[in-house]
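Chains adopt folds. We examine one example:
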Amino acid sequence: MLAAIGAFMLVGCETVPAEVNMQPTAFQTAVSRATSAWHPYAGIEDLNTMLETQTLSSAQRARVLYERGRIRTENAIELPNGIQDLQQATALQATIVPEEGAVPMQRIPDTSSMIRIAEAKLQLSRARLAGLQTLPQWFDDKVAVSEVAEAAERYRTSGLAPDPFDAGLLEAAGYLCRNDGAGTGKWQLGENTSHLSDLDWCAAPAAAPAPAASS
């Protein structure tokens, strides 16, 4: 009995292995893949996954937050969250202390001008939402103010064909599913439907979690 207790205490006292940050080469490859994804929203999703599943150094986390905020700002996607990304990336950058012997990562650029751009775009989207809009215009501004789920549901119930960029966003977000011939003959409303020949609304609507802002 004493031997068993001693063995248990010994196991409990063992040092927990330290988490290892993502290797620089693998990190750079993952970031490059995300920032050159087939659609900006797909890139955002890739960066979300990195923040949620990878062990990152502070410098790496700042870079991922910056890139996610940049993509959101440049494409007017989830602008409130993009502003938070940029603010948090800057705050995190300020806390980074170079590690002796470690290869330093390139610092993120100053984010102040990009934050101002995002704030201006957000203000315009909110102002337009207060007026009369076509469904595509309303959809884009709803996406800009971080209300993707509501925008997707409105498109779904309208029967109107989303344009190529909006269709890509809906596919990347899990609302449109791809299957050979899935959309043939199903998109009757809209001038341009050729890009939808293999796309149809997914059988079960995608869940609508709040867009990732920080991790």
